[in-house]
Design brief:
The chain has one domain. Helices cover about 70% and strands about 5% of the residues. It has eleven helices and four strands; from the N terminus they run ββααααααββααααα. Strand 1 and strand 2 form a beta hairpin. Helix 7 packs across helix 10.
Length: about 350
């Protein structure tokens, strides 16, 4: 029987047909999603998004079990750790998505279309980042120092921000350039990105919104891609973990939009998570490069965090963050009720 992956020198060798099948199935699911939403733009019901989200989460869990069966528990642990990390970082993205929708006044029935196209753009951009990251890692082992330092810097920055009360979305330079360079209409024309007015071809607000969603996710990818490479060096697992995290993002947006306000410690939790992975990356770099220390020129054996510890730490960090956030939100709500 041909396995989906074979292990050689502690690496996961995935056949070309598995890559093509995975990408083909994911593309088919996205195209089906695009076809359904394009035909019937609407505000999804709780049951609709709950069912779809359960499907994507179930598929992600089953995929991990498949990795376990064909490639072993170590690679399955790497996949689950990467998926949970990407999913938690994606939840943080949702708050920015909510601000973008409010900033541009996107009608509720068109929000699904905007999110879907924005997510497709994000998948394409992340695939490019994943390929570049894999090439850098294979060529320069010291790139882990850069990844680790960047994640630790990002963690410190997030920790300093703490509980953000900023309810304003700041446009990036690319968006400001597009808004200056391309004339746009003031009204939405369904899900159309372009329209003709008085013989002139204009962009619609939907074009600006999708650009905002895509470029914002690209900025988040600067954190998430180094983070997941800190948990696995397998491009196939990096890609699939990102795909499963992003494909359920649209449903998650509609399901927990109100809950995001209650996750008051999410930023701090992500700061701890990124700092942990950053330290893990630096330790891995020291282990791989065997840098000599003051010990007669002999390299010192550096401890490398096993994936089982990483997966456990991720679960604990996210669990404590969620429980503490909900506890504080509930306590604050009781205080406000008593005060009134």
């Amino acid at each position: 029987m041909t396995s989906l992956a074979t292990i050689s020198a502690e690496r996961m060798n995935v056949p070309t047909w598995v890559w093509l099948t995975t990408i083909g199935v994911m593309t088919a699911v996205l195209l089906l999603d695009v076809f359904v939403i394009a035909r019937r733009p609407h505000v999804p019901t709780t049951r609709e998004v709950g069912t779809a989200l359960a499907f994507f989460i179930g598929a992600a869990v089953l995929f991990g079990l498949g990795v376990w069966y064909f490639a072993g528990g170590s690679f399955a642990g790497e996949y689950y750790a990467g998926w949970l990390t990407e999913y938690s970082l994606s939840v943080d993205n949702l708050f920015i998505f909510l601000l973008i929708m409010a900033r541009f006044g996107v009608p509720e029935r068109l929000q699904q279309s905007a999110l879907l196209i924005g997510i497709i753009i994000a998948i394409i951009l992340r695939a490019v980042f994943i390929a570049l990251g894999a090439a850098a890692i294979n060529t320069f082992s010291w790139v882990f120092y850069i990844f680790g330092a960047f994640l630790i810097y990002t963690a410190v920055k997030l920790a300093r921000e703490g509980e953000s009360d900023d309810d304003e979305f700041e446009e990036n330079r690319l968006m400001r350039f597009v808004e200056r360079r391309f004339p746009a209409t003031n009204e939405y024309h369904g899900a159309k990105l372009f329209t003709h007015v008085a013989g002139r071809r204009l962009v619609t607000p939907m074009f600006i919104v999708i650009l905002a969603l895509g470029t914002t996710d690209l900025l988040f990818a600067l954190d998430s891609i180094p983070a997941i490479y800190g948990l696995t060096k397998e491009p196939y697992l990096v890609l699939t973990a990102n795909l499963f995290a992003l494909m359920g993002l649209r449903q998650l947006y509609f399901l927990i939009g109100g809950l995001l306000k209650k996750l008051v410690y999410l930023t701090l939790g992500l700061a701890v998570l990124l700092a942990f992975i950053g330290v893990k990356l630096v330790l891995h770099a020291l282990h791989e490069n065997e840098l000599p220390f003051i010990n007669g020129g002999e390299p010192v054996q550096v401890y490398e965090v096993p994936i089982s510890v990483s997966l456990g730490a991720i679960i604990v960090i996210l669990g404590v963050t969620t429980v503490a956030s909900l506890w504080k939100s509930r306590r604050d709500a009781r205080v406000d009720t008593s005060a009134s």
